[in-house]
Amino acid sequence: MTRVSVWAYPWDLHDIGLDTALDRIAQAGGNCVSVATSYHAGRFLQPGNPRRKVYFPQDGTVYYRLDPARWLGQTIRALQADVVAAEGDYLAALIDRRDRGGPQVSCWTVCLHNTRLGMAHPDHVMRTAHGDPHFYALCPSSPAARDYVATLVREVADAYAPDRIELETPEFMGFSHGFHHEKDGLGVTPEEDFLLGLCFCAHCRQAAMAAGVPFDEARARVVSLLDAAFARPLPQRSFPDFPARGFAAFDGEPALAAFLRWRPQAVTDLVAQVAAGVPKATELAVIDYDGSWTGGLDIAALAPHLGGVLYCAYFAPPERVGALLAPVKAALGPGKRLTAGFQLFHPNLADAADLAARVAAARVHADGLNFYNLGLVPPTRLAWMHNALHPA
Fold it and tell me: What is the C-alpha radius of gyration for the chain, rounded to an integer number of angstroms?
């Protein structure tokens, strides 16, 4: 069976009504619900929600019933969202429907992007070369952050036995778009944005130096590069072939290049720890995207620990979809599921024909499809999904 899923928030399932929401998804061609299991803060315009048209989710919480006993002794602990007690455990409700013949269930799980936890645990967040904290991003090198993610995923797997668990942000988060009301009067170049998103926290230092990486030298060089950028009256490219050449753009900087080659190992180690607690009956998938290598996602290295990859081709026109998916499929290897994710947002997506063309291009490579998002788009736009899945 080809899995076709729709991402959904628990509060939308509540406000739309579970029966109506599942009917809406089924009529669009979906046979799975990717429900938010842990999530971050935001401000959401929700034309698909009949009650809450603008909504601010509780920051950094989980949307299922926590077992406090699982979290005893943990430095970083999950917090159950208030809406679970007030409005119900919709993950449990979906699992019950599945077991009675309803759609499959996928747990959309945000891992390290968590400002609430970052503020509470500043010793476990990413830090710039200058030592400034990125409060919105726990660091994948932190043992406590890894234990948090592994416990979260294992609890979901054990208590609910979903068909799939989707890991979002198990990687190092970048500098841009991690927080709200971000301000940049400098006009950072692509390489400066990247350098500002590198983590030089104590946990990274310990792990990198144990691997023989010249951490302190790399950090000092990044400080020098950024200080030079901060002193210029106008932006100036220092590495003009970044990001086109990837990490190779920094090969002229030996210490930094060594640090960048080590960096994906931290992400792979985190995912390996998570995977050890997930039974084979549940597919473990990483959410991937164009440019994910900048955060340390190495699909070939991750593949032994995964059942699949969910690749979000949100911004790719039809002619680029295949070029993005093909190398991921190759890196993932045989016996693993590649799912293509599409956003239903306008104007990024022009119309129904645009979506149909993207889906057609994806089906050459992908084993499944995901569509974003039930409550964030008008209900009528789900018809675009139906038409794309059932072309005339």
Answer: 21
Least Cα distance to 388 among 372, 375, 374, 369 occurs for 369
Tell me the residue type at 183.
K
pLDDT digits (tens, 9 = 90+) for 193-219: 999 999 999 999 999 999 999 999 999
Residues 6+ apart with CB under 8 A from 347: none
Say which residue the tokens 């010249």 belong to: 214
pLDDT the model gives residue 177: 77
Which single residue is written with the structure tokens 């911004």? 315
Mean pLDDT of the chain, nearest integer: 97
Q: How far is CA 144 from the centre of its chain?
A: 19
d(CA 12, CA 364): 32
Token look-up 């640090």 returns 259
User: In order of start, what are the domains of the chain with their CATH numbers?
Assistant: 3-172+267-389 (3.20.20.80), 187-262 (no CATH)
H or E segment to which residue 95 belongs:
helix 90-99
The distance between the two most distant Cα atoms of the chain, rounded to a whole number of Å, is 64
DSSP per-residue string spanning 201-269? -HHHHHHHHHTT--HHHHHHHHHHHHHHHHH-SS---SSTTTTTTGGGGGTTSHHHHHHHHHTHHHHHH
Residue 9: CB atoms within 10 A of its CB come to 26
In whole angstroms, give the CA distance from residue 266 to residue 208: 9
Residue type, 140: P
Summarised one tens digit per residue, pLDDT across range 342-357 is 999 999 999 999 999 9
Give the contacts of 248 (CB within 8 A, at least 6 positions apart).
none
- What is the amino acid identity at position 320? R
Q: How many CA atoms lie within 13 A of 338 on its CB side?
A: 22
Give 210: exposed, middle or buried? Use CB within 10 Å, 0-12, 13-18, 19+.
exposed
Whether the pTM exceeds 0.85: the reply is yes
Give residue 181's pLDDT.
77
Whether the per-residue pLDDT at 44 is higher than 90: the answer is yes
